[in-house]
Amino acid sequence: AEVTLRYNQWFPSQHWSQKDGLYKYFEEIEKVTEGRVKVQPSAKPLAPPTRNYQAVVSGIADLAWGPHGYAPGAFPLTEMVEFPFTNIDAGVSSAAYWRAYEKYFKAAGMHDNVHTLAVHVTSGGNLHMKSSPVVNPADLSGKKIRVQTSVVGDALTTLGAVPISGSLSELREFLSRGIIDGTTLSDELLTGFKVDNYVEHITQIPGGIFTNSTFVIVNKDKWDQISPADQKAIMDISGEKLAVRMGSLWHENDVLARAQLKERLGENYKEAGEELNAAIDKAFEPVRADWFDKAEANGVDGKAAFDFYMNEIKRLNSK
Amino acid sequence: MLEHGPYTGFLMSMSLLKVLDYICSKISMLSLVVMAGITFADVFGRVFFNSPIGFAYEVVGICLAVCFYSGLYHVHKKRKHVKIDLLEKIFKGKTGIFLAWFSYIIEVVFFSALVYMVYIQAKESRLFGDVFMFLGLEKWIILAVMAGFAMVALISLLVVYPDNNQE
Amino acid sequence: MVMLIAFLSLLFLLFIRVPIAISTGVVGVLGLAYYQGWSPAMSQLGMIATETVLSYEFSVIPLFILMGNIISRSGLADELYNATHALVGHLKGGLAITTIGASGGFSTFCGSSFATAATMTRIAYPQMKRFGYSDGLATGSIAAGGTLGILIPPSIALVFYGIITETDIGKLFVAGVIPGILGVIFYVAAVLFVVHVLKDKCSDASEATLKEKLLAIRQLWAFTLLIFIVLGGIYFGLFSPTEAAGVGSVGAILITLIRGRMSWQKMRDALEDTAATTVALVAILIGSLIFANLVNVSNLPFTIVQWMESLNLGLMGVLLLILMIYFVLGAVLESISMLLLTVPVFYPIVEGMGMDLIWFGIIVVIATEISLITPPVGLNVFVLKSVVPDVDLKVIFKGVFPFLIADILRLALIILFPALSLVLVEMM
Ligand code: NA
Ligand code: NA
């Protein structure tokens, strides 16, 4: 191959997101460039997940996939897709996200120092409880719930819960020993991380109580080494196509995990009612208001971008 | 051990070094106390009052960083980095002195590079804009503190001569 | 070829007494510069030097070391060993056996080999010296006992393995129980061999009277209380094993304060010691991670896999080859790096040959564990060395040798009888 791209393999290589998602995409890159561009995954992480993006900027890795949220504060614009209730089908939301990125975020300088192959979302998070169900907002009162981000933590505090921050590697200990009463995760992550047997009650939040935003990026210098024709060939299978490929894969596996959880939990797997949804929506109000300010500070009309994103989702869903 | 400085002009800077040594050693010990204390307080608050300290995790990480980089001064000064002494017979006489200098120079070069790169990390992080999520603190500030301590530790390495018969 | 040069220059630097942290770091950066250019190589130095120390996961190291330091300076350790000595002191090697047992006990609430070795060094070494044990036996039993931390659940290594291979971590933990107990038994046998056959120096006290025994046991309440706080807290779900280190440190301080056994001076010494040990260990960790990145970037793991596939060996042949690779890599790499580097490329091979991944996990973790005590880079040995700098490294490695043999025998047993790892899992 003329150009070999080193991929930062920080996520388990046998996970479906890699095996059935990115690796298939890498094979297609090789095919459409007739072998002139190859992607080589690393045996272990070249950089910690928190520095995924910077590793590509500085050339430690040439290609990386990962969540924006691992570098909190660095990508304020992406927080738009993390709002609750926006992500019923990660494939659809990912398509809308890519369009919003192209139309609003790219121009504002997001991802300026890399070449972006795709941005997409992963499946939305639900409330996973160890032993007590959450039906009404009051059920959350005093419950210790592990959160991934301070934004979700703040919202849960408003609802009377006690947010616990903790590393994902300790989640198992926290859940199995009852240090926490529950956690906010997507269903596929719950089963994927093999902690589902500690959860007895699940309240599904339609569209997710939160969502993760992720990127697929390439080092700029490396990208420039690829001929314009091959660059075009690669972009023809990237962008929205890649976003939908990854998002849909997530949705498929989330649906599988949900079926598996529903089978085991029966009616202990329930959908959140209107009252709970309204309370959550209200709890996130300050976060949304805050984001519009951040967007403005970053030179983006937040209202327009958010409306565009929601409309695209609606439009794609009605198709 | 090594109370060096045959040059009297060194005296002034020596006392400055002593102050640095004192400060670094105190900070390193303090960060350990904070690390243990905040973990304890977090658990205590969570178990008895249902009010954990959200940023405990981040503080513990920062404490480890501060403990390491401020403690580096002392370890450099006493040349306490772990090394392998399986073949110490060849370290007698001239060869020994030569190898000690060789090793010392490699050490100095490596740590100079490390100090510089930690500084660069701080600079890049400032542009990147990442923060400690629960503390809300900008990450570059901590990285800059780390670079500062690393710099001070490098100075302590520079004023220590390679010593063939140490420990 | 480049990697051969890298390995050789690393060994050269190590043998001319360049500190381990610097040897691995320098060779790592130079090698990375060869493969990726200067700028990415230097960035990796900066990234690893900052991200390693900013991580919560590694904080368990200083906290457990601190707890050990306080326990050993407050008289708690003296009481523990006085009691043990009263009970088993008349048996040859009794304290070394106690050390193995205590390490095993400590491993049930500590997932890290580092921390187990560091804590036990602080507690056990001065005591064994007090009762006239040779340096070799004292340090050997501590370094070896420390490796139990990696296999007896909870285990950081098994968690990593489980995540990489997508095997059930709970099942892995259960599978580790019998091999872990076997480890304790084999180590005890090694101690007996050393004192009875090699006639190594150890205490030769006469048996204590019943009254002396009871008196000694009564003194144990403070230590028992601390263990109860730490272990009880974990099992009743009050805190996680990582947090236990912090709670245990503060608990140890409080208990000794209440009993009036803690002076300002002792506290300062404990903190100073902990800081020095932490710095030395974290520095090694940083160097080792940089070198691991070089192995990673060089594609050596994939090259090895291709070579193995071309040999067309049976499962046992492949397994032996993998173990040999672990011994070679284990000479210079730190255990978690080694695991992260090798497991992703090896497990698809053995899985394809029909091997049970839980069984393979136990084998891999024991192999990694062995690397913790093999020269030249045996991290447990360095933990010891950094806590007791006066003991010659040669003496420690020599003292470790009988335990190494015990480990290899145990590994052979586990490979020959898969049931040892799997029988409890099947009963689940
Ligand atoms: Na353990
Ligand atoms: Na080794």
From TrEMBL, chain B:
Quaternary organization: The complex comprises the extracytoplasmic solute receptor protein and the two transmembrane proteins.
Domain annotation Tripartite ATP-independent periplasmic transporters DctQ component: ranges: 35-158
Keyword Cell inner membrane in annotation: yes
Biological source species: Marinobacterium iners DSM 11526
Highest taxon listed in the record's lineage: Bacteria
InterPro entries recorded: DctQ (IPR055348), TRAP_DctQ (IPR007387)
Keywords: Cell inner membrane, Cell membrane, Membrane, Transmembrane, Transmembrane helix, Transport
Protein name: TRAP transporter small permease protein
Coiled coil: none
Main localization of the protein described in the UniProt heading: membrane
Transmembrane segments: 30-49, 55-75, 96-120, 140-161
GO biological process: C4-dicarboxylate transport
GO cellular component terms, semicolon-separated: plasma membrane
Family label: Belongs to the TRAP transporter small permease family.
Lipid bilayer topology: Multi-pass membrane protein
One function term, GO molecular function aspect: transmembrane transporter activity
Task of the protein: Part of the tripartite ATP-independent periplasmic (TRAP) transport system.
Pfam families linked: DctQ
Compartmental location: Cell inner membrane
UniProtKB/TrEMBL annotation, chain C:
TRAP C4-dicarboxylate transport system permease DctM subunit domain sequence ranges: 7-420
Pfam families with a match to the protein in the record: DctM (PF06808)
Membrane-spanning parts: 47-66, 137-164, 176-198, 219-238, 274-295, 315-345, 357-383, 403-425
The keyword Transport is assigned to this record: yes
Molecular function terms, GO-annotated: transmembrane transporter activity
Cellular component, GO, one term: plasma membrane
Subunit-structure text: The complex comprises the extracytoplasmic solute receptor protein and the two transmembrane proteins.
Family under the similarity heading: Belongs to the TRAP transporter large permease family.
Protein name: TRAP transporter large permease protein
Lineage: Bacteria, Pseudomonadati, Pseudomonadota, Gammaproteobacteria, Oceanospirillales
